[in-house]
Amino acid sequence: MNDDKAVGAESVLEALGRVKYAGFPRDIVTLGMVEGVDVAAGRARVRVRLPGGRALPDALRGQMAEALAPLGLALDVEAVQATPPPAAPPRAPEPTEDLLPDVKAVLAVSSAKGGVGKSTVASNLACAFAAAGHRTGLLDADVHGPSLPIVMGIQDRPTAAGGKRFHPVTRHGVRCISMGFFLDDTSPVIWRGPLVAGLIQQFLGDCVWGPLDVLVVDLPPGTGDAQLTLAQRVRLTGAVLVTTPQQVALRDVVRGLAMFRQVEVPILGVVENMSFFRCPECGEDEYLFGRDGGRRLAEQAGLPLLAQIPIEPAIREQGDAGEPIVCSAPASEAGRAFARLAATLAPSLCFAEPRAASPNA
């Protein structure tokens, strides 16, 4: 098709509406990046403005040209005069002291969205590291909704280590600390940001972690005080983003992705939780929350899809019983998925060079 009258601006916009911008679940037309279209002599002249006046990536240009090819149109891109870029976003300052000198790697597990199974992923990942022989810690940074005592099956409290310091509680080979250790079942935590930040700093600096290959940090939902305190107080080796396939979860994860990029924390990849349910009778996979949403997000953001974790009733049952699926049923499909996830991440984490030599390591 190359009839200019038949192919107008609306057809071009419809075609470009299938082109996604990397790191965002929406297309370049919906995002307002396409400011105008002219069609003449078999060519489509498209005026594009990118965030911050950035240059058009070659990959995006190629996707646009590919989208217009079925219309018989060649692509000309006009870069709209960029407005002055905004001030640089806030980034985490380099820590003035290393609160974790004996910890080789610190891994943040984040979702920015509640209810996607982030704590389940963090606890099973920590147990998978420990099962593989790595010295592992697990810090529950969700001050307002701590779940680590339940999912790890811990009823003990930390013991004093002299002064303000205290020892973590070890379970399933993982050294653990959580606000939940200091609360009863009905006590709410009604704290503002500075108190939350202070507690997380205490968990980092006053807890006697000892030499660790990796400290897994289970972050709360959102992009607030807990996340910024962690980024400011320790040198994060990287972050893993947890999502479910559904659109509402993906949109929040994009915000978390942007936050880590702003504070210059490496993002190691995406974990898609609750990916599918395999029927025990017929063996068919049912995609209860949509299909491959995490994969598409990873592709758009230029990140690896680290794992797709299935829905298994045993994950919930064993988690409620304090026995992560990696420990209670390591041969299950979910147990193997978490083990593979730990093996995939290990070269970037547990085998990293220590940032400060320790006589105890």
Q: What this model shows, in words?
A:
- With 361 residues, the protein is of the alpha/beta class.
- Mean pLDDT is 80; it is low at 1-5, 81-93 and 352-361.
- It has helices spanning 9-16, 58-68, 118-131, 148-151, 193-205, 225-233, 247-262, 293-301, 313-320, 325-328, 333-345; strands spanning 34-40, 43-48, 74-79, 106-110, 136-140, 169-171, 174-178, 214-218, 238-243, 267-272, 277-278, 285-286, 305-308.
- The chain is built from 11 helices and 13 strands.
- Helix 3 (118-131) crosses helix 11 and helix 5 (193-205) packs parallel to helix 6.
- The chain folds into 2 domains: 9-79, GMP Synthetase, Chain A, domain 3 (2-Layer Sandwich); 106-348, 3-Layer(aba) Sandwich (Rossmann fold).
- It starts with 8 loop residues before the first helix and ends in a 16-residue tail after the last helix.
Key traits:
361 residues; alpha/beta; GMP Synthetase, Chain A, domain 3; 2 domains; 3-stranded mixed sheet
State the shape: elongated
Query: Mind telling me the CATH class of the largest domain?
Result: Alpha Beta
- What assembly state would you assign to the polypeptide chains in this entry? single chain
What is the percentage of strand-forming residues? 15-25%
Q: H/E series, N to C?
A: HEEHEEHEHEEHEHEHEEEHEHHH
Termini, distance in Å? 69 Å
Could you say how many structural domains there are in total? 2
Structural class computed from helices and strand pairing: alpha/beta
| Fold-level CATH name of the largest domain | Rossmann fold
Largest sheet, in brief, is: 8 strands, mixed
Tally the beta strands: 13
Q: Compute the average pLDDT.
A: 80
Percent helix among the residues?
25-40%
Number of helices: 11
